[in-house]
């Protein structure tokens, strides 16, 4: 199944996407609510939606303004180095344990919303990533069982402010500027995709300019391995997000000059069979001007 959380005519709801049309499942199933939170925790509700024979797709997907799949995400855990060629272009050694960091709620936003270049830096970079949404929580999850804990997969653009990322070994500042991490819009449940969402083309673009192009089959740590590794040290909960790292081609590594995102551009991140996450780039100073008017 393909889910889209979004706004239509002033109301937020969960939609089941079928091609270019969608069904308002929040209206049909009152227990669904306005985001994926209830579905993450209710296999019975998911089964009811899956088995319903009277769900008629009547809403144009293009008319829906995307919202975050989970209005208040739980823990957002990201892999920093998960494609060998990206590790090499960044000048790092290939690690023997995943490079993990965390993002805060203010740093992420829905697909379609502006990605903000901060006033303190022009070095806003893009990172196309597969994102996992946890459905069933747990601790000490085995690799063999890990995929049973996945609710679905979506698209993530891990916007990174590179000079601030390099100010500390922990990467936290550069990965947590407000409104730099775009998520969505569509969440695809596992039965629609190859196991662990492996073998899917992943790409980032600005217009016709291809910035990154790779395949999720090139990830060093698979989704199952990553879930097992993270659950060694923390309890995963429904609504936690895991970003699976980016392939080569990021802006800071472009030669002869870095390729930073510029206000007025629109960056698209696409993962085969999942969808496209589009983000217009705006300057933070321009946002303040608009707010003051």
Automatic annotation (TrEMBL):
GO terms for molecular function: isomerase activity; metal ion binding. The keyword Protease does not apply. Signal peptide: none annotated. GO terms for biological process: carboxylic acid metabolic process. Keywords: Metal-binding. Residues 75-281 form the Fumarylacetoacetase-like C-terminal domain. InterPro entries: FAH, Fumarylacetoacetase-like_C, Fumarylacetoacetase_C_sf. PANTHER family: FUMARYLACETOACETATE HYDROLASE DOMAIN-CONTAINING PROTEIN 2A (PTHR42796:SF4), FUMARYLACETOACETATE HYDROLASE DOMAIN-CONTAINING PROTEIN 2A-RELATED (PTHR42796). Belongs to the FAH family. This is 2-keto-4-pentenoate hydratase/2-oxohepta-3-ene-1,7-dioic acid hydratase in catechol pathway. It comes from Primorskyibacter sedentarius.
């Amino acid at each position: 199944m393909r889910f889209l959380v979004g706004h239509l005519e002033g109301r937020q709801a969960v939609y089941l996407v079928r091609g270019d049309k969608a069904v308002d499942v929040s209206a049909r199933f009152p227990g669904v609510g306005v985001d994926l939170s209830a579905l993450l925790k209710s296999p019975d509700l998911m089964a009811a939606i899956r088995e319903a024979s009277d769900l008629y797709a009547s809403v144009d997907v293009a008319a829906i303004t995307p919202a975050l799949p989970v209005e208040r995400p739980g823990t957002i855990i990201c892999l920093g180095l998960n494609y060998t060629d990206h590790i090499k272009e960044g000048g790092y050694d290939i690690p023997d344990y995943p490079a993990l960091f965390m993002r805060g709620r203010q740093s992420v936003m829905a697909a379609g919303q502006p990605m903000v270049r901060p006033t303190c830096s022009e070095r806003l970079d893009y990172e196309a990533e597969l994102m996992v949404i946890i459905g069933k929580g747990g601790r000490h999850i085995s690799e063999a069982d890990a995929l049973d804990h996945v609710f679905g997969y979506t698209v993530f653009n891990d916007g990174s402010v590179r000079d601030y990322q390099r100010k500390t070994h922990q990467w936290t500042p550069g990965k947590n500027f407000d409104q730099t991490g775009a998520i969505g819009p569509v969440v695809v449940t596992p039965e629609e995709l190859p196991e662990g969402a492996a073998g899917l083309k992943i790409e980032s673009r600005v217009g016709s300019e291809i910035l990154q192009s790779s395949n999720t089959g090139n990830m060093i740590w698979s989704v199952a391995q990553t879930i097992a590794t993270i659950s060694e040290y923390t309890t995963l909960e429904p609504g936690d997000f895991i970003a699976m790292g980016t392939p080569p081609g990021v802006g800071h590594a472009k030669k002869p000059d870095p390729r930073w995102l510029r206000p007025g551009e629109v960056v698209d991140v696409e993962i085969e069979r999942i969808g496209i996450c589009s983000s217009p780039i705006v300057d933070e100073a321009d946002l303040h001007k608009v707010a003051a008017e």
